[in-house]
Amino acid sequence: MSLQLPLFAVLVRGPSMVPTLRDGDALLVRRGGRVRPGDVVVARFRSRPDLLVVKRAVEARDQGWWVHGDNEFVADDSRAFGVADVIGRVVFRYWPRPGWLS
What we know:
The structure is a single chain. By secondary structure, the protein is mostly beta strands. The chain is built from 1 helix and 7 strands, in the order E-E-E-E-E-H-E-E. It has a single domain (7-100), classed as Umud Fragment, subunit A (Ribbon), CATH 2.10.109.10. 4% of the residues lie in helices and 49% in strands. Strands 1, 2, 3, 4, 5, 6 and 7 form a 7-stranded antiparallel beta sheet that branches. The mean pLDDT is 94.
């Protein structure tokens, strides 16, 4: 039996969510729950299930989500990898600049 807590932590790696999030930001994520367009989420692309990403939910599509990064100069999102399955919604950045994201 495995226990899945409703909250988990992730560390941002890379520039795809600048200026909202930066490399090294530590985030608290709520597993499951309702996702709305505009939410910052943690997801896995169906075409790249080994890759865990932090992106912004754009629209529900094909029983998943179309997600984009906030950095217009980095396109490692649904434009490159297609639909993503959302694991959870980012609710709080706790390091290095604490703040609520939703």
